[in-house]
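Cross-posted from the bioinformatics board.
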Amino acid sequence: MIRKTLAALSLAAVAPLASAQTATMCVFDVIGANGDVYNMVKDFALEMKTHGVDFKLKPYTDEGVAIGDFNSGQCDAVAALDIRTRPFNRFTGSVSAVGALPTYKDLETLLATLAQPKAAPLMKENGYEVLGIVPAGAGYLFVNDREIDTAAELAGKRIATLDYQKDAIRMVNYVKATVVPSDITNFAGKFNNGSVDTAYAPAFAYEALELYKGIGAKGGIVDYPLAQLTVQIIARDEVLDDDVAQKAREVAWGMFPQAMNMISDLEEAIPDDKWIRIPENDIVGYQEMFRENRLEMRDGANGAPVVYSPKMLSLMSKIRCSSNPGASECTADNRE
Amino acid sequence: MIASRLNRTNGFSARLPKLIAAGLVLVLSGCTVNPIYHTTGVVLAGYAETEATPYVLQMTDTKMACSLGEGLDPLVYSFSRVIDAPDSTGSLLMLLSGNCMEYRAWEAELDYLRADYSGDVPAAKDAREVSKRLYAQTATRRYEAFRRAMAAYDFDPAAEPMECPFLFTEQDEITFLVGLLTGMQAIVNDANSGAMAGVPRNIAPQAERAAQCVDNEKWGGLPNAVRALVWLLLPDTRPALSPDPWEVLQNSADLGVKTGFRTSHALQVVAAETFGRPDVLADSIAHFVAAEDQIDILEDYVLLDEAARTVVTFSSDKHWTKNYGHRTPGRFMGKMSPERDTSNIETMSLDGLL
């Protein structure tokens, strides 16, 4: 009896959380364990302890390696940008579809909708489950010349394009600009040294990657969200029970205000005169341009790659038409 | 009545030269400022720079040095109201006060890790929140220290092309260099606060460029260590044909031991934590500890080595607390687990005794 008690005590000393389930998570953050995303995931992990899961986090500064390690089974879960996590869940991977969520209010509605228990079946695909979605900020177009303020002006311009982002490549080709294949670590240098005319990135990059250098005196940032980037936490389906996975999504949704605070601070830090405001009429035109391209990338029409989930496009269309019921797309025959 | 008025007029005339002289002093000393304040400011700022700073840099007690920063900074820097801002001393004082705040944040972070280890989630959340607030204050102080260090040498870190500042003395060099390092620390602290302090992130590439203004060998590899850390953070900033940043960090750590202060080790440890390199972390901490027997600490900059020790110790404590629930036991400093190597210890057979 005494021996058993002693054994139990020594076990407790070695593993005080024996009752909690342990899972490893590869976390991508451009600045590793001291980055904003990593710190937010730390908050997520702490909250998840309340629900009996002990996430062990590992920082990665190379997103491709983080995904690779997840694929090879070195981590049970991965936190990365949705452009990279699309293969695991096309539905949530389509949140960043081009021009699909023109406001943060729309994004809030979407993420609140997806955090509901009713959305749980949509969170599972191909043996993977989405454990949470947190905003990473809208992607904007950075240009080295303010004259590039219409889609037509992009023709012939060189655009730093993530080489694994099929929808971006499609859009660059669509506006008859030139794709300059890039990755997260080198697009800023290309923009700043003038080897490309434009690049797209969240507001974070303006200061941290010194994109103001590439903007110079003549350029600016087009004040229209090209896409809503999010950080998504994906796990292998068997890692968490369904009810715990649902709790995880609710925890991630609870972090929305924290993430938005950070994003709005970064966007507000950009001097007002660097933003290029575009006329309302042009915006209507772009919305239609993006919508047509989304449809093509949903169906693989006109040689477009199949990138987007029809269900997600339909949901985002409903959200847009709820916040802007007068938009022409809301009465179009080919609604998403 | 009339006579008394005349007397008063005569008295006024007699005092006139004195009044003019006093007025002149006021004008010369900067308009409406009490001349004593001005003189005191000049004397205090001069004393702080020529005597107090070298004295503090020779101290071994990092806690006392940081208290000095917290206590004296508002007094010394308040003289920027009456004389030119004493930016170089102000930078060091603010840097020391930033260290004080960081020590508090570290304690809170260890509290968080300990509570997390023992599964007490509310206590862990509370401690994490405390640490975030303290890191935000640390970041604010350090950003101010960075700003003052740049201002002290009229250096515009954003200027293109960059123009190195005139650094006349060793103290100027180290104040400038440590100012850059403090700017980098401000970014890390701000990230750990949940970006509460709003420190501009472009300090990192600016520091990478400015670090080239200071001699690498002379300053224990610290300038290159700063650069290598930025190369890891922002690979775009890494010049073509430059060596691997991890090699540079190791070279800097070695140079630091040769030169007599191990600040580069602190950067190596921070890089290892940031970029998830437990192998480098373990080696760096072990190397730091092993160097105790060989290093000849640079007498004039003892405080730098001691400050590095606090960073390395905290890093080790974080590892231990995360994995074992407590700080590094004294005899295990330099090791990452409580396992003892008993392979060389002989034991006797007890056969025949039982």
